[in-house]
Amino acid sequence: MEKIKVQFLLKEYRKGNNAALEELMLLTYKNLYSLAYSYVKDHMLAEDAISETYMKLIEKIDTIKNDKNLNGYLRTIVINKSLDILRKRKKEFCMEDEILDSQPEKSSTNMDSQYVKYILSKIPSAQREVLLYWQYGYTLRETAQKTGYTINQIRLLLDKAKKTFFEKYHKNKADETLY
User: Fold this and answer.
1) Distance CA 33, CA 81 (A)
2) pLDDT at residue 104, rounded to an integer
């Protein structure tokens, strides 16, 4: 990243030139995205970390004293945002395990219950998380607030999760009837 160009773009943005901010974001995006992805290992979560980083930059633009060190400032924010996302996801996965473990076990449905848990373990984690919130009656908005995804992302994840779950579940039932 060209430090002189970055300094110029910051000065221009502070003067009210929004195009300068856009150019600055284009200039820094690739490096920041790579850094975020190296932490979260998920494209959507890396995008979220980048978005939050740029929001923080806009929010704190007037407090940046050394324009020459903007790259270090942005990298620190990306790392912190990525770690926040990972901590948040870890908490939610712990909650998910508690929900699964708190299911009542009836002897007649114990096999079914075990198979449902097995299928859920095979669904990608983001889809599984959204599916469990849906199962327990959370609205799309509530799920979005809890997961940090947008409502559109929730819809997509939920559709994929339902499709995957029901395909696997019904495939097993069909296989059982063959024997």
Assistant:
1) 12
2) 53
Q: Which of 161, 162, 133, 163 is nearest to 147 (CA)?
A: 133
DSSP codes of every residue in 7-36: HHHHHHHHTT-HHHHHHHHHHHHHHHHHHH
In a domain, 96, yes or no: no
77 and 112 inside one domain? no
> 38 and 82, same structural domain?
yes
Torsions phi, psi of 108, nearest 5?
-75, -25
Which residues neighbour 95 within 8 Å (Cβ) at sequence distance 6 or greater?
none
- Name residue, tokens 């009542």: 104
Instruction: Say if CB 45 and CB 85 are below 8 A apart.
Output: yes
Domain identity same for 122 and 56: no
Q: Which residues of the chain have pLDDT under 50?
A: 1, 106-108, 178-179
Residue 37 CA to residue 43 CA, distance in Å, equals 7
Supply the pLDDT for residue 179.
Answer: 44
> What pLDDT is recorded for position 107?
44
Token pair 């296989």 is found at: 175
